[in-house]
Specification:
The structure is a single chain. Helices cover 86% and strands 0% of the residues. The protein is an all-alpha fold and 105 residues long. The protein is flat and about 55 Å long.
């Protein structure tokens, strides 16, 4: 089997797994009021941390993307940027998936 096809199948399997597990998480009870208050504080702190961290990483990512483009070509540089953006996006998505507002229960 071709390595590209294997990669695509693994990606599809990961997306399906992500959909199944996120639905299970979103269906779970958000807990009592105190638990929701603590979770909200954690979410706010994690959001601030991720924003600061991703801002710093973005600067390094741009430099690396330029170096990849210069030494390996445009296609690998585009792949690097897409992977970096998706990795960062999943950090925010996962953080917001765990803490639900009381009205969504």
């Amino acid at each position: 089997m071709d390595i590209v096809l294997i990669s695509i199948l693994c990606g599809v399997a990961a997306v399906i797994y992500g959909l199944i597990t996120s639905r299970a998480i979103l269906a779970a009870s958000p807990g009592n009021a105190r638990m929701q208050e603590i979770a909200k504080a954690i979410q706010e702190g994690a959001g601030a941390y991720l924003t600061k961290q991703y801002t710093a990483i973005a600067v390094v990512g741009v430099v690396v993307a330029v170096l990849v483009a210069l030494f390996l070509g445009t296609i690998p540089a585009i792949a690097f940027v897409l992977g970096a953006v998706q990795s960062g996006a999943i950090g925010f998505i996962a953080m917001h998936c765990w803490v639900l507002p009381a009205s969504s229960a």
